[in-house]
Design a protein that fits this description.
The protein has 2 domains: 12-59 and 170-239 and 338-395, FAD/NAD(P)-binding domain (3-Layer(bba) Sandwich); 107-164 and 241-334, D-Amino Acid Oxidase, subunit A, domain 2 (D-Amino Acid Oxidase, Chain A, domain 2). Strands 1, 2, 8, 9, 10, 11, 17 and 18 form an 8-stranded mixed beta sheet that branches. The protein is of the alpha/beta class. The N and C termini lie far apart (44 Å). The protein has 9 helices and 18 strands.
């Protein structure tokens, strides 16, 4: 895979240029919103401080898990389910436009119980899911182990969530990058936004860290964990980095999931999750294991302690993974907000300044719904798509 194909040149000619919209941040949120706004005929520039899509979007596992993340009914669950509903059409259209498959799989998830307390919590979650009308089931240990013989055998059962999918987030990044270029979005890498520039309490441009200035009628902040460092605002954005560390493995045997019959390919493997670890399969046989969660600022990983923690938990859940090959370890910074909710909408004290940040560990899941809502809002088509609990004015 050549993830840098069609890379646009970065030059000083951005200085003084004018765009209808400048998007700060080239992750899945920023790219998808830029692509959506461009369909309205607006000129769009994406500014990325590093390389396109190499932040939290690259470091994620690609789980699409609204029921797994929501603790109760409410705005997050509704928005997450809306995004999950959009994913099939979003994926097909993106693959066709970019010419890249993104490995979108409607695979389901098993949440595993290994103690009486874990079982009780999962059974309560099952009752809640069924009461809300969501497809879910309780699988007894024999059924789980039949399909997943590599699991530790002292299993008490598992909650099966049918509406829990996965996507290859790195392929998604590459597809969004290429689709933006196809639509005429301009991309500039290595261009860090230092401050928003305003005129009469309205955003009118961006000053870059190299001193250059870009003019804009509208600005969308999608800088993830770095949003809190953006200058020029009446109040700093309350977003902090939460470091996560992951490991990619290649099992030495196919024992995590049951092999298919001779001559018959196995079904699409499910995501497996306990209270301490998740295992996300890829179609090529890799297994992603993660993740740590550390509030340590921008201290980079992966660390020995973090990687060892992931490996201990992964091999405890699946003892056969002790013989797996370690392919890669990495870390990323999730954008955390004070209340754990995304920050979506117009900045309350600065006109024409929009925020799409604070997605924490759900940026991949919420990409289609965020793009849909922000595309309409930025293009002045709608102000009613976003849950009140997500609006920025709750924080200032």
């Amino acid at each position: 895979m050549n993830s840098h194909r069609n890379r646009p040149a970065i030059s000083a000619n951005l200085d003084g240029r004018h765009f209808d919209l400048v998007v700060l941040g080239g992750g899945t949120i920023g790219l998808s919103a830029a692509r959506e706004v461009r369909t309205r005929g607006l000129s769009v520039l994406v500014l990325e401080r590093d390389s396109i899509g190499r932040g939290a979007s690259w470091a994620a596992a690609g789980m699409l898990s609204p029921l797994g993340e929501a603790l109760e009914p409410g705005p997050f669950l509704r928005f997450g389910l809306r995004s999950l509903e959009l994913w099939p059409t979003f994926a097909r259209a993106l693959e066709e436009e970019a010419g890249i498959g993104i490995e979108y799989r409607e695979c389901g998830k098993l949440r595993l119980a290994y103690s009486e307390q874990e079982e009780a919590r999962l059974r309560r979650r099952l009752a809640w899911a069924l009461a809300q009308g969501f497809p879910a089931d309780w699988w007894e240990p024999a059924r789980v182990l039949k399909d997943h013989p590599g699991l530790r055998p002292d299993l008490r059962g598992a909650l099966y969530l049918e509406q829990d999918f996965r996507v290859d987030n790195r392929l998604l990044v590459d597809a969004l990058r290429r689709a933006c270029l196809v639509r005429g979005v301009e991309l500039a890498e290595g261009c860090e936004a230092a401050a928003i520039e305003t005129e009469g309490k309205r955003a009118r441009g961006v000053r870059l860290s190299n001193g250059h200035r870009v003019r804009a009628d509208r600005i969308l902040v999608a800088t993830g964990a770095w949003s809190g460092q953006l200058g020029g605002l009446p109040h700093p954005l309350p977003v902090r980095p939460i470091r996560g560390e992951m490991v990619a493995l290649r099992p030495s045997t196919g024992g995590v999931w049951r092999a298919g019959k001779p001559g018959v390919a196995p079904g699409v493997p499910r995501v497996l999750e306990s209270e301490r670890i998740y295992l996300v399969p890829r179609d090529d046989g890799r297994l992603l294991a993660g993740a740590t969660e550390m509030d340590v600022g921008f201290a980079k990983g992966p660390t020995v302690d973090g990687v060892m923690h992931v490996l201990r938990e992964a091999t405890s859940l699946v003892p056969a993974l002790e013989g797996a090959q370690i392919l890669e370890s990495w870390s990323g910074f999730r954008p955390g907000s004070p209340d754990g909710m995304p920050i979506l909408g117009e900045f309350p004290a600065v006109g024409d300044l929009f925020l799409a940040t604070g997605h924490y560990r759900n940026g991949i899941l919420l990409t289609p719904a965020t793009a849909e809502a922000m595309g309409r809002l930025v293009a002045d088509e709608s102000t009613t798509d976003l849950p009140e609990a997500f609006l920025p004015d709750r924080l200032f």
